[in-house]
Design brief:
By secondary structure, the chain is an alpha+beta fold. It has helices at residues 15-24, 27-39, 44-51, 55-67, 87-97, and strands spanning 42-43, 71-76, 79-84. 53% of the residues lie in helices and 13% in strands. A hairpin with a 2-residue loop joins β2 (71-76) and β3 (79-84). Residues 9-104 form the HTH arsR-type domain.
Length: 104
């Protein structure tokens, strides 16, 4: 039997992509990422209003996305905006939702 397709000699190669998928594996986080694709940058207050969730809940989800390198922050004075930080996400989300363009 040919087992080359399942080469487990370097499973470390799978850690980063698996962590990326874990970070995306919640409906609220997927919604945040998709919203950032459409809006380009956004602050927590706007997301909280759109999602109708407590600010602390939105912040917790953003922290998970930030820890995974999916989003980053841009500071403008006192305002902190979130932006997508990983271009792979911009390729994945339209595939997951069956959309050609998430920027509408």
């Amino acid at each position: 039997m040919n087992t080359e397709a399942f080469d487990s000699t370097n499973l470390k190669l799978f850690d980063e992509p698996a962590n990326l998928l874990k970070a995306l594996s919640h409906p609220i986080r997927l919604c945040i990422v998709r919203g950032l694709m459409r809006k380009k940058k956004c602050n927590v207050s706007y997301m909280q209003e759109c999602l109708d969730l407590p600010q602390s809940t939105v912040s917790q989800h953003l922290q998970k996305l930030r820890s995974a390198g999916i989003v980053a922050t841009e500071r403008n004075g006192l305002e902190v905006n979130y932006v997508l930080a990983d271009q792979r996400i911009e390729q994945m989300i339209p595939i997951l939702f069956g959309e050609e363009d998430c920027e509408s």
